[in-house]
Amino acid sequence: MAQITAALVKELRDKSGAGMMDCKKALGENDGDIDAAMDWLRQKGISKAAKKSGRVAAEGLVAVATSGATSVAVEVNSETDFVARNETFQDLVRNVAAVALANKGDFDATLAADYPGSGRNVKDEITESVGTIGENMTFRRSVGLSVDKGVVATYIHNAVAPNLGKLAVLVALESDADTDVLTALGKQLAMHVAATAPQALNVEDMDPEAVERERNVLIEQARESGKPEAIIEKMIVGRMRKFYQEVVLMEQTFVVDGETQVAKVIENAAKAAGTEIKLVAYSRLELGAGIEKEENDFAAEVAAAAGN
């Protein structure tokens, strides 16, 4: 019997897109013959993962998981929203979130970690699932937040099942206040973040290039008024303040009541709790954000299929 080397397994894996364990089994079943192993994988419906791997996956689900004062959010993509409603896919995303939680949201560590009960790592399990479910899928990203004392509240928007949906938010509150109080406040703040998509927590956290670009646009707009430069400079100060109120979380108006600044909401909650509450970090994962989706011309596809 031919020796099934790691190099041989890798070669088959690169050609087929199948997982490592399946490649090893295919080679073992076919005495190390690559072509026969490829046929074996095709017969089992496993190698089709390779064909699907180039297709755009912009649907899917985000998920959150929490343990103690640590929470994570993950995004696993599929090609269609139909698959996102599949219980097998939902279980996959939940398990990826659980693995990410064990790794505090570290993406690379999660990708390489063991997937529960499969004998494969997360990366290989995703590949296996492509063949099983029949669509291209990717584990795209994960984030994690932790606090020494306090809570990391979570919120899922457009939930399709508990802790699964289309948009996930984490909000880290550091405080000695009662956990229930912090959790309730954190959820409201997370809902606010979901609605407003702030660019930064504080003004000093803003991307300097984004700030400079906005300032230049405002200056050019102000100059069109024909006012003196000294007046324009004062105008820019006011307009930049308004800009920060639109994009900086602590400067924004709280969407829940429509009138209180977020920083003041936290200050009021701290007074009521009798202890300091500090919003130290947040994270917002929106499904498919930044992925360029393919625009298909359905009529053209039908015409092509008909040979026109």
Globular, elongated, flat, extended or rod-shaped: what is the shape? elongated
Q: What is the string of SSEs from the N terminus onward?
A: HHHHEEHHHHEEEEHHHHEH
How many extended strands?
7
CATH topology of the largest domain: Tetrahydropterin Synthase, Chain A
- Assembly type of the chains comes to single chain
Mean pLDDT: 87
CATH architectural grouping of the largest domain: 2-Layer Sandwich
CA-atom Rg in angstroms: 25 Å
Give the total of domains.
3
User: What is the CATH homologous superfamily assignment of the largest domain?
Assistant: Elongation factor Ts, dimerisation domain
Structural class: alpha+beta
End-to-end Cα distance, whole Å, is 52 Å
